[in-house]
Specification:
Layout lengths: L9 H8 L6 H21 L3 H16 L7 H8 L2 H9 L37 E10 L12 E2 L4 E6 L20 E5 L5 E7 L4 E2 L5 H8 L5 E2 L2 E7 L6 E7 L18 E2 L2 E3 L2 H6 L6 E5 L2 E3 L2
Parallel strand pairs: 1-12, 1-13, 9-10
Antiparallel strand pairs: 1-2, 1-5, 3-4, 3-8, 6-7, 8-9, 11-12
The structure holds benzoic acid (BEZ) and fe (iii) ion.
C-alpha cells in the first residue's frame, strides 16, 4: 500500500491493492477500470462540483430503474458501449449476419405464429411482407465452392414498433396485446415469411437522466425504423439483430449507434396483384427479402 498519495502514483497504488483478488479476470477488469478512470480524471481534471454532479447523475440513473425501465442500459446504449461490447462478442465472420443491440422492448414473450401470419393487429400502417431464409454460415453463398445450407426449423422471434413509433408495451390498452410480435419456425428449407406493417422511427425514452444527457449535448433521441429479430437453431449461435428500413430518417444518426450497413434492407413497394393475392393482401405492399446466416 502507498503511504504518500500523489497524482502520479495513485493509479498504481490502487491497482496494487487488487493484487490478491483470487479471480484473475476480476482483477484484470478492475485494474483496467481503475487505470482508465484515473487517466480520465488526470486528463480532464474535474472540479469537486463536477464530480458531485457525476455522482448525482449516476444516482438518478439508478433511481430511474425498476422492473420495466433500465436506465443504466440506456446510458450504455447512448454512449455506444452496448454496441461496442455486443460487437466485440459477436465479431463478423465471413458471410454470417451481423448482430446488433437487443434493446429494452423484448419484455414479453412473443406468441407462436404460423408462417404467413400477420403480426399487425391494427391495420393502419403500410402493409409489408418479410421473407427470407435461415442459412448456415458453414456453406454460405459467396464462400468459394460452398452453397448456403438451409437451417430447417430455425426459430425467429420478431418484434417491432408500429407505424406511429410505439411498441405494444408502451401503449397498453391502445395496442392489442402482442401487437408487432411473433415467434415463427422456418420451414424444412429454412424459408420463412410473415406479414406486418412498415415500422416507424421512434425516440428512446427521454424522461430520465439519459434524456437530460441528450438534451445537454444537443443530441436527438431517435432510432431509425427497424424490425428486431432473435434467430436461433440447435447447434448454431443465437443471433440478436435488426433489419433496418433503407432510407429511414435517422439511419445515419441512430441514438444508440446500432446501425450496421449489412443490416439495412430495401423495403420495395410492390404493385403486383398476383403476388399480393398470394400473400393474402389486396393492394400494393412493401416486400423485404432478407436471409439470416447463422454461425454454427
Ligand atoms: C430498441 O430498438 O428497441 C432500443 C434499443 C436501445 C435503446 C432503446 C430502444
Ligand atoms: Fe427497437
Amino acid at each position: 500500500m502507498a503511504t504518500d498519495f500523489t497524482e502520479e502514483t495513485a493509479a498504481a497504488a490502487v491497482i496494487a491493492s487488487l493484487a490478491d483478488t483470487p479471480d484473475p479476470r476480476l482483477r484484470e477488469l478492475l485494474s483496467g477500470l481503475v487505470k482508465h478512470l484515473h487517466a480520465f480524471a488526470r486528463e480532464t481534471e474535474p472540479t469537486i462540483a463536477e464530480w458531485e454532479y457525476a455522482i448525482d447523475f449516476l444516482t438518478r440513473t439508478g433511481q430511474k430503474c425498476d422492473d420495466e425501465r433500465q436506465e443504466f442500459i440506456l446510458l450504455s446504449d447512448v454512449l455506444g458501449i452496448s454496441m461496442l461490447v455486443e460487437t466485440i462478442n459477436n465479431r463478423k465472420h465471413g458471410k454470417a449476419t451481423e448482430s446488433t443491440v437487443l434493446g429494452p422492448f423484448h419484455v414479453v414473450e412473443s406468441p407462436r405464429r404460423e408462417l404467413g401470419d400477420s403480426i399487425d393487429f391494427v391495420g393502419t400502417g403500410q402493409p409489408c411482407v418479410v421473407r427470407g431464409r435461415v442459412l448456415t454460415a458453414a456453406g454460405a453463398p459467396g464462400l468459394p465452392g460452398l452453397p448456403g445450407l438451409p437451417v430447417p426449423g430455425a426459430e425467429l422471434d420478431v418484434w417491432q414498433a408500429n407505424d406511429q413509433g410505439f411498441y405494444d408495451v408502451q401503449q397498453p390498452g391502445m395496442q392489442p396485446r402482442a401487437n408487432g410480435r411473433g415467434l415463427f419456425t422456418a420451414g424444412a428449407d429454412g424459408a420463412f415469411w410473415f406479414r406486418t406493417i412498415v415500422p416507424s422511427y421512434y425516440p428512446i425514452p427521454t424522461d430520465g437522466p439519459v434524456g437530460d444527457l441528450l438534451n445537454a449535448t444537443k443530441r436527438h433521441p431517435y432510432r431509425p425504423a427497424h424490425i428486431h429479430f432473435i434467430v436461433s437453431a440447435p447447434s448454431h449461435r443465437t443471433l440478436t439483430t435488426h433489419i433496418f428500413v433503407a432510407g429511414s430518417q435517422y439511419i445515419e444518426s441512430d441514438a444508440v449507434f446500432a446501425v450496421k450497413k449489412s443490416l439495412i434492407a430495401d423495403f420495395t413497394l410492390t404493385d403486383d396483384a398476383d403476388l399480393a393475392a398470394r400473400y393474402g393482401l389486396n393492394g400494393p405492399f412493401f416486400l423485404i427479402d432478407f436471409d439470416f446466416i447463422l454461425l454454427s
